[in-house]
Amino acid sequence: MYCQKCGAENPEEAKFCRDCGLKIVVDPPLVVEKIVYKDQVDTHRSKEWLWFILAVVILIGLVVIIISFNKQDNLNSELIDTSSSTDDIEVVKIVTPETPYVPTKLEVKKLFASVSSDLDEEDYSVEKDEVKIDLGDLNNDGLLDAVVDFYFYSNDGGNANLGGGLMVFVNNGETISYSCWMETNNTKLDYINESGLIKAIKMEYAEDDPRCCPSISTSVDYRFQNDELVEF
């Protein structure tokens, strides 16, 4: 070390300068204090809490994932066990009701042409083309039946009105078949209403009407009962 007065070099353990005799004063070691501000401490603590919370969230997420996988494995095991045993499985058969048969007017017309041939006579025949057909539920069974309005024509070529009739065809859900017919002179089919009532128009002659053309019209109803037509 060096003397503070004369600058002479002295041993480290010397207490007095060997040249000038001055007492050597050894300076205490320099202590550097680190100043830590409160904001820095709060920031550090905040980071520590942030990492702690993040770690907790990650841990909870891992636990949830593990539990979910375990539940899925158990469910798969149950499904495998259930599918492997067919003795305890109850098979439920769903029966869809079939759509009921709905006849077309063309089908009815063809059937009428075949059936009405039995009404043909030597002097007159049934007109099979110029007919009126209407569909409706005549017996309240939820199925569409058919009524055909027809007339007779003379085989000798005359234009006299020979009358006509109504013919009924009944639907059994699979097909339609002939049921009955009723002579209804000068009566024309109008329509079948929702209750199965056959609405018709009856033509009557006025005093001056020609033989071919009655001019007075009145309403008349028919009901299909017990396999026959009844004026209602």
Report what the structure shows.
With 232 residues, the protein is of the alpha+beta class. The chain has three domains: 1-32, no CATH class; 37-83; 105-231, no CATH class. Helices cover 25% and strands 26% of the residues. The protein has two helices and nine strands. It has helices at residues 38-84, 105-115; strands spanning 124-126, 132-136, 145-154, 164-171, 176-183, 187-192, 198-204, 216-225, 228-231. Strands 1, 2, 3, 4 and 5 form a five-stranded antiparallel beta sheet that branches. The chain is rod-shaped, with a radius of gyration of 57 Å.
Please specify the SSE layout and strand pairing.
Elements: H1 38-84, H2 105-115, E1 124-126, E2 132-136, E3 145-154, E4 164-171, E5 176-183, E6 187-192, E7 198-204, E8 216-225, E9 228-231
Antiparallel strand pairs: 1-3, 2-3, 3-4, 4-5, 6-7, 7-8, 8-9
Count structural domains. 3
Put simply, the count of helices is 2
Decide which structural class fits the backbone.
Answer: alpha+beta
Estimate the helix proportion, in percent: 25-40%
How is the main sheet built?
5 strands, antiparallel
Shape: rod-shaped
Distance between the termini: 146 Å
**SSE series:** HHEEEEEEEEE
The unreliable regions are 82-86
Give the beta-strand count: 9
Arithmetic mean pLDDT: 82
Rounded to the nearest angstrom, the radius of gyration is: 57 Å
